[in-house]
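pls ignore typos typing on phone
adenosine-5'-triphosphate + seq
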Amino acid sequence: MTDTLVPTLEDALQQWRDANWIRSIDVALVELLQQAGEQNPAVLLASLFASHQVGRGHTVLHLNALAENPNHTLALPPVNNTAGDCVTPAELLEQCWPKAEPSVLESTLCVDTTGEGQQPLVLINDQLYLRRYYLYERFIEADLKQRMDDEPVVNEELLQQTLALLFASSADDKINWQRLACANTVKHRFSVLTGGPGTGKTYTVVRLLTALQHQTLKLGLPPLRISLAAPTGKAAARLRESIEAELKSLKDTSALASLTAAFDAITPNGKTLHRLLGVMPNSRQFKHNERNPLRTDVVIVDEASMMDIEMMVALLKATPKHARLVLIGDKDQLASVEAGAVLGNLCAGADQGHYHPSTVSWLERVAQSPSLPREFIDADGPQRLQHVVMLRESRRFFGPIADLANAINYQQQEQITEELAKAGRAESDYPVRVLDIDSLDAPEFKQLVRDGIPRLRRDDFDSFDDYVKATLDANTQFQILTALREGPWGMKAVNQKVGEILGVNANSWYDGRPVMVTKNDYGLKLNNGDIGIAFADPEHGHLRVAFPDDSDNTQTGKSGIRWVLPSRLTHIETVYAMTVHKSQGSEFKHTVMVLPDHDTPVMSKELLYTGITRAKERLSLVGNNLFSQGGKRV
Ligand SMILES: Nc1ncnc2c1ncn2[C@@H]1O[C@H](COP(=O)(O)OP(=O)(O)OP(=O)(O)O)[C@@H](O)[C@H]1O
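k done
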């Protein structure tokens, strides 16, 4: 923008819309307010920015942050801006609403400062909401309060005995957080179980379900109806598989024979949240809601960090008030791309416990636990944290990848630098590798791709189906993740480059093309995030796309493959690379993270932590100048 031009809201709306800086829906909101008679540029600008923030996953616009650093708060101009010389938010604010003072919005047509009105915008202190999101937040607060206040009756003596059977007693004075979590979750109608990778969330949930069923069966009541769900199909399938495996190992333990009836009353039946709540075609509503609640007694939602605020509202409306609702997830992972960091907000402060003395004494007594250290006790701790337990010890995720992930999560700069330096010095079999390269044309990247992408030979398998299943399986061994979609280090560019390296056009159909579904398709029974691979039919050469079929089981004789014609797949993209957001809920043996060559607000610690924790055995960090500023880029 040149100094001689005075930016106007109209200029900005047009430029920003054309440049894809904002969404059409953001512009539509401003136009709607104008049609309703709102002329105050501050209000129009505020509504535009509040709507823009929703598009970025934030339910609220903090006006103080906006005043302090408008461009950073709104992440505009965007990274890899190709739109040239647009007006910036800072320039426009200077013109229309200097300092973005909240007081300017008070007593205007479209802004409600009480939360009780009808206006489209709600201003509480410096927090500006679109009314819908304000109402969602208030609904969740009130609904959870009701669930938290209403404690179920628990046979404490029986629970004490069950916990003693299901969990090892604490050696030395070590706190067994899993045991405490199980006790705490039985005690409450609403609870949250959070922890990093491999901290035993599923291990604990299976024992929780056992304890609940045991309590119920001992009273002579019918077993509890259990609903297991997750935001994506893949996460739901993984939950079901892990529960099945854990349950099997419990059933095989002779010392637990007294709990057999409780084990038998647990049916692993993981579904996507959409399927659990019942999708209605062309509607944001679900079949199950407050008028038609789920017929269930226990609802477990795994990977809850991916759940947005609208889904949380739908879940609460559909979950009967008598039921136990348990959210499970890693609070430090990225929040949903849609608005609202539900799990993160519920768990804020969970690292420090903040347990009331009454919570602590109940837990210590029932879980027969050594005393909790004083730093976890806080008489003034918020009520929600009495319902949260954080698992703190990983059973499977350790070594250099975990050390780097934890250093990033806790922002330990020296440790990050040290971990990267170790990786830089290490031999090639070290689990973390850094490829500090200027461009994706670097030979090291080509080699990484050639070595990593599995290539199975049809001739090595007895049948075509076996070959397809093995290829689908091998496809989860190596995955490239990107921070961004666009730009030279973004998902699209990386997919194209990998295609070039493999000698294919990654945007067309060919034998071996891996694709990810980007929108739920209920007709085809495919979920957003499902991954398939195109195969040439051995008989007539036509391409068909194979997806793993979760309903596979040897008793029903299904092949374990769902075949779909490419022409029926309308929302897909090639998936040699996917964004870190899309990778949530999945793990890969070798994870490659391609990082942009400059700092961007997108490169949050949550994004890095989420990407790195997808790596099961190997992690390769790829980018330009990764060591600059003493490793701060990572
Ligand atoms: N207390 C324990 N004693 C022995 N093994 C355990 C214990 N807790 C967890 N495990 C084992 O550690 C592994 C990881 O546990 P689990 O899958 O429950 O973790 P998670 O937190 O659900 O992992 P993810 O991050 O993959 O969701 C499993 O093999 C589980 O059986």
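The first strand starts at residue 60 and ends at 62. The pocket of adenosine-5'-triphosphate is lined by residues 178, 195, 197-203, 242, 395-396 (CB under 6 Å). more later
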